[in-house]
Every structure is written in structure tokens, then in C-alpha cells.
Amino acid sequence: MNRIAILLGFFILVCMDTTNAKMPAGMDARFDNYKENFVLELWKVYPGWASSVGYHKYDSVLVIPDEASRNRELTFCKAELDSLKKFKLAELSDLNKIDYHLIENQLKYAQWGINEEKAYEWNPASYNVSESFANMLGNDYADINTRLRNFYTRMDAVSDYYSAAKHNIKNPTKEHTTLAMEQNSGGLSVFTDDLNEALKKSTLRDTEQAAIKERAIQVVSAIKRYTSWLGKLPNANPRSFRLGSELYAKKFQYEIQSGYTAEQIYKKALEHKDELLVKMHDITTKLWPKYMAGKPIPGDRSLAIRQMIDVLSLNHTQPDSFQAAIEHQLPELVAFIKNKDLIYIDPSKPLVVRKEPAYMAGVAGASINAPGPYDKNGNTYYNVGSLSGWDKDKAESYLREYNHYILQILNIHEAIPGHYTQLVYANQSPSIIKSILGNNAMIEGWAVYGERMMLENGYDGDRGVNSTEASPEMWLMYYKWNLRSTCNTILDYSVHTKNMSKEEAMNLLVNEAFQQQAEAEGKWNRVSVTQVQLDCYFTGYTEIYDLRQSLKESMGAKFNLKKFHEQFLSYGSAPVKYIRELMAPVNIPAGR
Ligand code: ZN
Ligand code: ZN
Fold first, then answer.
1. pLDDT score recorded for residue 3
2. pLDDT tens across 10-26, in order?
3. Which ligand is nearest to the CA of 450?
4. Is the N or C terminus of the chain more exposed, i.e. has fewer CB atoms within 10 Å?
5. Domain span at residue 196?
6. Is 458 strand, coil or helix?
7. What is the rounded distance in angstroms from the CA atom of residue 153 to the CA atom of residue 135?
């Protein structure tokens, strides 16, 4: 979930050579060629994106974000959209149909970004070079000398880069201006300490090292000039950070690629929240005598639920057994899934559990770290954070949040049958398109769906592989967790299209979703500088669940849960609405 570092950006093993697949005929063969060429052209237009997914041919290139580059991008989009029109969608294979939609969506999204959204004018935080340079130092895809030479060439464009940024910015939002100053200042160490460390490891001659250091000084001063310019920018009537209904509806369409509109999803989230609160109160009432003997139950629904959650949260592991607790659960999840016949788990691809690497230190919890599309032989890791070195209060608060129950749900979400299992299936239908343009709402939606599906089938770590019913404690905590995704959507939509105030947002998150004050503050900060992304969890989950329910209804006794899961995942990281067209062609959802 969003509080945990999720490194799912790049995944799926991909082969760029077509020799190992059986050669498809006609339209599909032509489309496969087209896709390969499309990706090569894409990387020319977006060299930074290419580097980030492990394609390093253009590492030395930094695009100056000026009007000329936006025009090149628009020309590229128009040309590729024209090329797409030469293919007849109906004649393509199912997997290529989805790739066609993904490419088309990407191109239209980019056009819309330049022509309508125009974040390059109002979001100063969209300009920041440090992360891409940091990746060149931190990832050892090539020898250090080569990486440093590319680093050097690329630095040459930084000054022009920030000049173009200043030229673009008009009437920015206060929130993105502050963020830009923080993030750009935070990235300065890449060009000082981090660079010096890397130079020490290299065998570059002194003169070359000196030239690199000299240019890095200029980069640092260009970044400082940018942040101080932002600090002094006259901005009497800053643009609101709220996106507004019209742009929001479009961004939702391109980013989430749902069969529902943003408004429909918002309404569904409101209904779902009410249902969850009713269920949570029922469980609280039932459990009350067991945990609160002699104490009267508060008349206020939220207060009663919160008190019960607080008591259950005391059941948690200790800092030194946190990692062991997570590792211990994985084989139990696999055994349960096998016993209940929920989905095939390939035993030849076990998940490699490791302590989180140093560069991720401080991010506790767990995350999946998968190889990029150009890194065929890379391992997929389950990074498990360590709480060692944390002060007592911070560790205690963290462990209550990731208590005995939530920790099980976290493992389901991140690993099995959540993100990791989805990844294994996605790798079986390799497509470079799905690996670089994969749909986040489907990916997150699957993980969120998996949580509910496991509990519906009786999963409860305390009750073993034959459990037929999860405990009420487990359900209550699951509902709290699910409330978080649900409220992410309510929050995002309300803030950006309905003028929700910070006070109202805090009330929603703290009093209706039982979050800690600090967590809620963090969420408010996030929603002030992002739009739509927070919708992906609930939207994907809802669409997958709805698809399953409609197939259950139409197929009756013939419906098989295991088959449903396996077929669903076989299409790769595709938008659920397209999977739906292929799995349930008669049941196109209402909305669009
Ligand atoms: Zn996730
Ligand atoms: Zn404790």
C-alpha cells in the first residue's frame, strides 16, 4: 500500500528478440514489428525514462524541457497514432489488442499533458535532475568509469534545463513550489558527496576527475539559482493545487483506464465506506465483552470501533522478531492457497526474501523489488525492513500499526497471492509494452482484491491451512485496512474536485478511517501534490471484484475461482476493462 515503498515500477522479463516465440501470422506479425520499433522511437523521445527502465543507450542525454522538445513529443505522438490506425484491432490477438490500447492511451495521455494539463507551467517540482543522476551512480549496470563519463556529458545540459524550466513556469501552485525547493535542495548531495564517493571507486585519471568535479560545481549552482528564483518568484495569485473536475475526469481516464468514470468510482467508494463501518461496528459489538469486560461500550460508533482497534493492535511482534514473523508467514500462505485450490503458485519461482538494502534503510515494512524489462536475469526480491536502531516509541507505534493481523494482510498484498504472484503470471506473457506501460490500477487492484479473497476463503494465520473462517479480529483489522484504500479515493476526488478542506480531510482520515494523526497529515501532503494516483487501489479492486461477481452470476455452477484467477492474470498488467472485454464480452460495465 502507499505507506510502504513499492518498487513495482519495472518488472516483467522481456525478450526483445522475436526468435523464441512462434511466429504469428499476418496482422499480429506486423504489429509485433511495429511494437519493437515503437519502443525504440519512444526511448529517443524520452531518454530519461529509458534509463530508468534499464535501457542505457541514451544515458548521456538530458532533454531540455523547452517548446522545441514539447513539439518533438507531439510530432512523435501524432506519427505513432497514425501508424496505429493501420492495424485492425479486431484482427489482433487478445494480448496484442491490449498492447494496442496501452500504446494509444500513452500517446493520447502525453498529448493531453502538453495541450491541456500543462503541469510544466504550474508544477515547478516537475523539474528535478537529481534522481536520474543518482541512478547513474547507484546502479551498477555498467562499469563505474563509463557511468561517470555519461554523468559528465549529461551534466552539460543542466544549466539550460533549469533556464527552460524558469521560462515555462507561470503562476505555479504554492504547494508544488515549496516541494520543488525541498526536493531540488535535497538532491544536491548527488553532485557533491555521492559523486565524490563514486569518483574514489573509479580509475579515471586525475584530469578527468577534476573536469567532472568542476562541472558538478556548475550544476550545484544552477540548482541553487533555480530554488532561490522560486523562493523570490512574485506569485500574488497562485494557481490552486486542486486539479478541478474537468482535468480530473480526463486524468482519471488516462491514468486509471477504468470502465468507470471518476465520479462513479467516488460514489462507489462512499457506499463502500458506509458498508465497512456498519460491519466494523457489528464486529466491535460482538467482540466487546471478550476484550472490554465490565466496560460500557460507547454510544458513538466511531469511538467504539476505535477503542476495539486500539486493543487488538496491542497484539504485535517485537522489533527483533519482525522480519522472522514476515518470513514465517510466506510458506503458510502458499500452503493455504494450495489446500483451498485458489490459484496455481509456481514452485520453481520462490520469492527471495532479503533484508532491505542499505539505500532503502529506514523504510520498514515490506516491498517487492523486481527486475526491469531489460534485466532478464535479475532476481525478484521481497525486501523486509528492519526495526533495529529505532527508538522505543517509534518502534512500538509502528508495530501497533503493523500488528499481528495487519502484518498478515500486508504479506497477502505484497507477496502471495498479491504483487509477487501477479508478477510471476505477468512474466509468462512477456510484452515490453505491458512492462513499460502496465496499468497500475490493475496491479494495485489485484493486491487489494487478493486480501479480500483470502479472507473470504477463511485465511487466518492462527487457524492453520484448513481454516474455513477467519476470526472476527482478523476481519475487523482487514476492514480497517480496506477502509484506507477506500478513503484514498474519497479523499483524492473530494480534494481535487469538491474543494474539501484540510480539516474535513483530517476528519475523514482520523475519525472515519481510524488513522493516526501523523499518517493523516502525510496523506494530506501527498494529495496536495499528486492527483488521481491515490484512486488506483480502490478502482482496480472494485473492477476486479465486479468482474468476478458478474462472471459468477452468468456462469452459475460452472464458475471456478481458481480458473478465474489464472485466466485473469494471464493477460498481464492490463487495464481491467480490457481484460473484462476478453473474459466477459457480454457484460461490458456501465459507464463508458
Ligand atoms: Zn501495492
Ligand atoms: Zn506493544
1. 31
2. 333 333 333 334 445 68
3. 1
4. C
5. 124-232
6. coil
7. 15
